[in-house]
Amino acid sequence: MICVGIDVSKRKSTVCFMAPGDKIIRRPFDVKHTKEELQPLVDEIRVQAKYDEIKVVMESTGVYHLSIAYFLQQNGIFVSVVNALKVANFNKAENFRHTKTDSIDSTNIARYGIAYWAKLPQFDLNGDKYFLLKRLCDAYLNFSEERSRILLQLQSQLEQTMPGIFDLFGGFDINSGKGKLLDFLERYCHIEDIIAKSEAEFVSSYREWAKEKGYRSNESKAATIYAQAKNGIPSIPNNPIVRETIMW
């Protein structure tokens, strides 16, 4: 049997080939997490596999181990991803060197693999798909929270540029980030954009916009918006910086 112990880092890994009895088949060496450097590792493992059973063992490192584990397993190599605490406890029980270097760590991982050869769990793509799905869900939730924060900030800004417009349109959906008001802001984001026109001009422009966006072309709604704009007092000026913060 030959165990390939891999100590995984962010962009590279340290690899050690070991046989029982602490026999080093190949001294620890580094490989980057690229196809160009991982393919020769695959080739070497396949050569060794012609003469003896071979397994690859690495510690679970959050996400860093995933790329190399996937690559090796997709090339038909047995890969086992083990809990780092189990390896640490094994090293402590066996009184192995406590100095931490990538080379020593890869050697100790290989020793662990040989000691627990028959019990090594095979890397489960589906199991890690669950892990990846969880990360995607976390990212989605973070994105949703950030979007909600931005929309609430926008609501506050609108009270300064077009007082009352939020309530007049019934707001917007904080969860979906969609709504008639958001579409309206693409054309009008300050009271002065509205009152720069005559009421007839604004009503005509509003109806044209509503038709273009697929909304009901309501003349009375346009007149109400115009009247409110004429009566409103903005607290911040209509300038490029203000417009940029709203449109962003």
Report on this model:
- The protein has 248 residues and is of the alpha/beta class.
- It has two domains: 122 residues, 2-Layer Sandwich (Nucleotidyltransferase, domain 5); 109 residues.
- It has eleven helices and five strands.
- Helix 9 crosses helix 10.
- It is rod-shaped, with a radius of gyration of 31 Å.
- The two termini are 60 Å apart.
- It comes from Dialister hominis.
- GO terms for molecular function: DNA binding; transposase activity.
- This is Transposase IS110-like N-terminal domain-containing protein.
- Pfam families: DEDD_Tnp_IS110.
**Largest sheet, strands/sense/barrel:** 5 strands, mixed
Task: Tell me the radius of gyration.
Answer: 31 Å
* Spatial strand arrangement across the major sheet: 3-2-1-4-5
CATH topology of the largest domain, which one?
Nucleotidyltransferase, domain 5
- Helix segment count? 11
N- to C-terminal separation? 60 Å
Average per-residue pLDDT, rounded, comes to 86
InterPro entries: Transp_IS110-like_N, Transpos_IS110
Domain Transposase IS110-like N-terminal: 4-163
Protein name: Transposase IS110-like N-terminal domain-containing protein
Pfam families: DEDD_Tnp_IS110
